[in-house]
Amino acid sequence: MTRRSCAIHAVGVTCALLLVVGIGLVVAQVFRTLMHNRLKKEIVLVEGSRVFESWKTPPPPVYMEFFFFNVTNVNEFLEGAKPEVQQVGPYTYREYRYKDNVSMLENDLKVSAYNTKSFVFLRERSVGDPAVDSITTVNIPAWAVMNKVKGSFFRSSMVSIWMNSLKSGLFTTRTVDELLWGYEDPLLARISATNAEVEKVFGLMYKKNGSNDGEFIYHTGKQNYMDYGRVETWKGQSQLTFWTSNQSNSINGSDGSAFHPLLNKDERIYIFTPDLCRSIYMEFEKDVEVKGIPAYRFTPPRSVLASKEENPANEGFCVSPQECLGTGLLKVSPCRKGAPVVASFPHFHLADPKYVAAIGGMSPQRQHHQTFLDLNPTTGVIVRANKRAQVNVLLSRIPGFPKTRGMNETVFPVMFLNESVVIDDASAARVQKLLLIVTLVSNFPLVIVGLGAILLGVFIILLVRARKQKTSTEDDTSYSPVSDKEKEDPQNGTYIGLTPKADPQD
């Protein structure tokens, strides 16, 4: 066997081995499985893991925008007319968030922490000065007190007298700062003088700057990657007590800051949010890309805040059978000290059209009012998010308060917020690097198959060339004698003269 034939055989054997091994690895997904197992071990909430520090102190900047609804026809509304509002905003704050008092529990299977938030005003991202700009809106403290005492003739009469003497109306005009961070309400101050449990200061974000929502205990994901970031208890409770069914009181999912890796499009993402006093879910909407990172967009579907008729599972969120609101609304008074506060998406996005039609100035738009999460499916990292929610107050006629007689029952918008984040460049570069490694390792068998295919091509070329060369050699070495008798060289002996083989037809 010549060297050339040995080389051809070696190339053929190597090619066959590469193709068999490569195809076998592709079919068995060995490298992909190994890489995914590695991710499951790396993405855990324990000291020294790839994600622990960024979970405790998220690097991307978070912005909180507040938009208020300024009422322009208070007197007409009190007489039964349709209310007219104008949106004012945004008033933007940089939100600094970090996990405080972090403690590992149960051999690193769980971790406890407090979610602390603080806010710093950003004038360049805002429409005006919150200390100067005034908003006319619903007097929430007054409505909360009126709802608290309704049904009691004596207490209703007393509160009505106090409101008249203190000139505390059904609507109020306050600065943005006061509405957000608190002001001393005269009616609450009068009540707190005899009832120490009543806070005399009211603000939509009162005591939320530099504070936390209570202790959370999370699963680290060490035991099961699907539990990564999942809330086990909040304020020591594994179940809520605000609602009327076990399903509604369940604490499901994460707190919105961490999601397990290896997401798929068919699953529901659950998030527990203390602001709504409940868990919500989100479903896949579409594929997106943020700073070169592929992501799945998850959004809450209409069924999350659907009426009990539209989604029977939501019946547990009815405060009472008489206080069961329609699609798109959630009355959160059980966790707001009985205040008639109603949550919705901004401009009643995804709500029953009647709520939009009842307020002049409402214009729901998916682009501006939708809540969404863009998650990289491989790592579970949040690459972009917008959490949008609206605060409303349920206004209705209340016996004992004459000023409410001419009003129609209305879900009145007060303000909505937009909490947004986009992954920063440094974090994006780290995620891209990790995804590149995952892709290369997972697709390594394809490289082997590719090499096998190249060698197969080389093998075929060598075979063809060898066949041609063999044929050419046979043709070139064919001979016939110069004459019928061999000629003899007197000096060198007998020789044979090579001439081209004659054409058999000639």
From TrEMBL:
<dbReference type="GO" id="GO:0005764">
    <property type="term" value="C:lysosome"/>
</dbReference>
<dbReference type="Pfam" id="PF01130">
    <property type="entry name" value="CD36"/>
</dbReference>
<keyword id="KW-0325">Glycoprotein</keyword>
<dbReference type="InterPro" id="IPR005429">
    <property type="entry name" value="LimpII"/>
</dbReference>
<feature type="region of interest" description="Disordered">
    <location>
        <begin position="469"/>
        <end position="506"/>
    </location>
</feature>
<keyword id="KW-0812">Transmembrane</keyword>
<dbReference type="GO" id="GO:0006622">
    <property type="term" value="P:protein targeting to lysosome"/>
</dbReference>
<keyword id="KW-0472">Membrane</keyword>
<dbReference type="GO" id="GO:0005044">
    <property type="term" value="F:scavenger receptor activity"/>
</dbReference>
<feature type="transmembrane region" description="Helical">
    <location>
        <begin position="434"/>
        <end position="464"/>
    </location>
</feature>
<keyword id="KW-1133">Transmembrane helix</keyword>
<protein>
    <submittedName>
        <fullName>CD36 antigen</fullName>
    </submittedName>
</protein>
<dbReference type="GO" id="GO:0016020">
    <property type="term" value="C:membrane"/>
</dbReference>
<dbReference type="InterPro" id="IPR002159">
    <property type="entry name" value="CD36_fam"/>
</dbReference>
<comment type="similarity">
    <text>Belongs to the CD36 family.</text>
</comment>
<dbReference type="GO" id="GO:0006898">
    <property type="term" value="P:receptor-mediated endocytosis"/>
</dbReference>
